[in-house]
């Protein structure tokens, strides 16, 4: 997904979901991912979302049946911000999670 007009920005926001333990957290939940309130996809294992965005601060949200979590993400020119998404281990109310990780960890865990 590329936002904005003109030249393609080199700044990225990577949102990915690593493999988790348990049927409920792996299969039965897929939080919706929003960028500044706009739906951009879902948090699924093996399907990372890479957003090319202008430098600045962006609001990333993960929305599920058991709640929402919001993170402010800043990216500078030529940089990548990485977020690990998922759900809590509660089998009855698995709430969405979004955790900032360093770019190297995010790249490796996302399988890129």
Question: Explain this structure to me?
Answer:
With 112 residues, the protein is mainly β. Helices cover 12% and strands 46% of the residues. The chain has a four-stranded mixed beta sheet, with helices on one face. Strand 2 and strand 3 form a beta hairpin.
- Write out the strand line-up for the largest beta sheet, numbering strands in chain order: 4-1-7-8
Total beta strand runs: 8
Q: Please state the structural category.
A: mainly beta
Into which percentage range does the β-strand content fall? over 45%
**Helical segment count:** 2
Helix % is 10-25%
**Average pLDDT figure:** 84
Overall geometry = globular
List the uncertain runs. Answer: none
Q: How is the main sheet built?
A: 4 strands, mixed
Query: What does the radius of gyration come to?
Result: 14 Å
Order of helices and strands: EHEEEEEEEH
Secondary structure topology:
Elements: E1 11-16, H1 23-28, E2 32-35, E3 38-42, E4 49-53, E5 56-64, E6 67-75, E7 80-87, E8 96-101, H2 103-109
Keywords:
single chain; 112 residues; mainly beta; 4-stranded mixed sheet; 2 helices
Task: Report a brief summary of the structure.
This protein is mainly β and 112 residues long.
């Amino acid at each position: 997904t590329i936002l904005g007009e003109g030249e393609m920005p080199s700044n990225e926001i990577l949102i990915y979901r690593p493999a988790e333990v348990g049927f409920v957290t792996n299969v039965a939940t897929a939080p919706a991912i929003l960028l500044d309130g706009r739906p951009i996809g879902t948090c699924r294992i093996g399907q990372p979302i890479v957003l090319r965005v202008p430098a600045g601060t962006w609001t990333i949200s993960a929305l599920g049946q058991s709640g929402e979590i919001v993170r402010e993400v800043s990216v500078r020119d030529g940089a990548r911000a990485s977020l690990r998404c998922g759900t809590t281990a509660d089998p009855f109310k698995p709430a969405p999670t979004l955790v900032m990780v360093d770019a190297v960890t995010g790249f490796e865990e996302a399988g890129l």
